[in-house]
């Protein structure tokens, strides 16, 4: 629950995780059909596939209404994941996905009312670029080539020019970027169609198109069921009162633009110097939990 994991079983049947033998896979595939709401599994395959049974939105609404009526509930787990694990327990869910027409599966996300904890929306890996990367131009290769669409200067050079050293002396760029300059003079700059990381001198380090970011966001999070809960401590135990459920769907480049401008979407650079090349752990686009509703076009109340 603490992170965004989308199993999207309707689109990606990861059967190899459950059926390692090819012939068994072939026989199993015959037992699976799907409609616009959820997956239907024949009796012959149901037992092996119980991990992928999902709630429909209608069933969720009925079950959540019963949870809401319970009032205050003791957490089933200590720590920040308790709010999600406890909700899943009382909903009778084995995984935090809900089936929706047209959208496939969406995640159920429970959070504390007023929480400003950071969560990752999506991540571009080391090959991320503005458009499709040209052959042999992927960032981080041994020959020193890199994606010129995203990185405007060689990432290794950027690290050595703007990086800082960690406690072990390793040089890297592990920065959460915002519109105000950090200690190295790097900040986010945004215009009508792009967002970039640049230095106060005007040098552009990396750049992304807003429509590409919106497309990536929509693919990663086609929708979200957001449940808000009040919490209080009673001795050493945390108690929750689940108060509200909302279905969030749809985004756009304009929303991404506005939320970056407002400081509600931040960019994490995560790369370091490996000696002959740069090691990139992926550029993360993150937001605060209490800003999630600002990132979607449509909000429907489920309570």
Summarize the helices and strands and which ones pair or pack.
Blueprint: H1 22-29, E1 32-34, E2 39-41, H2 43-46, E3 55-56, H3 57-69, E4 72-74, H4 82-91, E5 97-100, E6 104-112, E7 118-124, H5 155-162, E8 164-165, E9 171-177, E10 186-190, E11 194-199, E12 204-209, H6 210-220, E13 223-234, E14 237-249, H7 253-261, E15 265-273, E16 278-280, E17 283-288, E18 298-301
Parallel strand pairs: 3-5, 6-13
Antiparallel strand pairs: 1-2, 4-14, 5-6, 7-17, 8-9, 9-15, 10-11, 11-12, 13-14, 14-18, 15-16, 15-17
Helix pairs in contact: 6-7
Fraction of residues in helices? 10-25%
How would you classify the helix and strand content by structural class? alpha+beta
Level-2 CATH architecture = 2-Layer Sandwich
From the alpha-carbon coordinates, what is the Rg to the nearest angstrom? 22 Å
Count of discrete domains: 1
**Quick one: biggest sheet?**
7 strands, mixed
Terminal Cα span: 21 Å
Poorly predicted ranges (pLDDT <50, ≥5 residues)? 1-52, 126-148
* Total count of helical runs of at least 4 residues: 7
The CATH homologous superfamily is called MvaI/BcnI restriction endonuclease, recognition domain
**What gross morphology would you assign?**
elongated
Number of E-state strands = 18
**Mean pLDDT reading:** 78
Description:
The protein is an alpha+beta fold and 303 residues long. The chain has a single domain (1-303), classed as 2-Layer Sandwich (Alpha-Beta Plaits), CATH 3.30.70. 21% of the residues lie in helices and 34% in strands. It is built from seven helices and 18 strands. A hairpin with a 4-residue loop joins strand 11 and strand 12 (204-209). The longest helix has 13 residues, at 57-69. It is elongated, with a radius of gyration of 22 Å.
